[in-house]
Amino acid sequence: MTLFFRRLRAARPVVARVGFRSAKVRPSERRKATIGLFCSAVLLAAGASSAQAQLPVAQLFAVSPPGGKQGTTVDLSLAAGADLDGANQLYFSHPGITAAQKMSMPGLLPVAPEPLAGQFTVTIAADVPPGVYDVRATGTFGMSNPRSFVVGDLPEIKEQPGNNSQDKAMPVEVNSTVNGTADGSNSDWYKFTAKAGQRVLIDCWADRIDSRMDGTLALYDAAGRQLMRSHDVHRRDPFLDLAVPADGEYFLKIYDFVYGGGAEFFYRVSIGVGPYIDFILPPAGLAGTKSAYTIYGRNLPGGAPAEGVAIEGRPLEKLAVEIELPADKATERPMSSMFVKPEDAELDGIEYRLKTPLGTSNPYFIGYASAPLVMELEPNDDPTKVQTVALPCEFVGQFGPRGD
User: What is the reported pTM?
Assistant: First the structure.
């Protein structure tokens, strides 16, 4: 688009010189040229008026809250949008999520209840898998663009007003998800009670669910000392991994990095001790096979310390599991719960989550291999210790330790 306007500006002087170049134009010809230019201007103006007179297009910018728990009902509102006149239906990309428009309560007069604009009751079936789904609004001007609606398996609460300082922090439970909105110049504060030895993971979803918020997290103890701070871990979303040092209350501060705020700056933050996947080896497998994989992550039930493996100084655990990949690759929806880079959009695979008594993990992508997988065998750091492989194959390895 920038290149187009640069060319247009460069062409204008040439057009002008062509139109009025000769000083020997006859008066009659000049009048004809003037009339022609006038007619052209009228036609251009008519075209612009016609473009402006097009019907509005329904636009949905945000819903509140941006998610809910499996097997529950959620009071949802269209928090921001344009041309949503008459919006009386919501369409979700999963058939297990349905919505009905809320009606006004009957008063003292015998008046029939009326629909409440932009207010819906959303029902999430218990068998809807955790993930990110699309929601669209339908009204007078058609169906809107999609926004993200997240289904989780933890208890959910909605931010209450007035939690803009540590002394007014809103209490929440460990193993819960909070839905909130950044307040611009203010910060949102929450407090929770944790026990020594717990590994509490705090995961904020904003950028990953189409929010305009550039989230930042800061964690404090009861004395007001900052223990941790996070920004831009998963895309522009923050993540904290707290090894709880002592029993007591801890305070979480959430805000937009440049102190933006409003309905479109929504977030979901989960505070829990459930499992978290950092990566899986091998990262792919043959369709229709059931194979052994190793999960590397945190709070993995039955997991063992992954010696020498850490991310940003936080040690990881490892857990051996068996994962079955479907034979029909076409039925899978790759990486439905997170954005993908353009170069990853064509990759075939599944979204894997580890299910445990403490909850379901975050999603992780496992791709489909096109040939048998061969794992790296150490030591193979010089030509005398070369690893021999049989073709065709897909080779999987790791660079580690440093200098490998």
Answer: 0.81
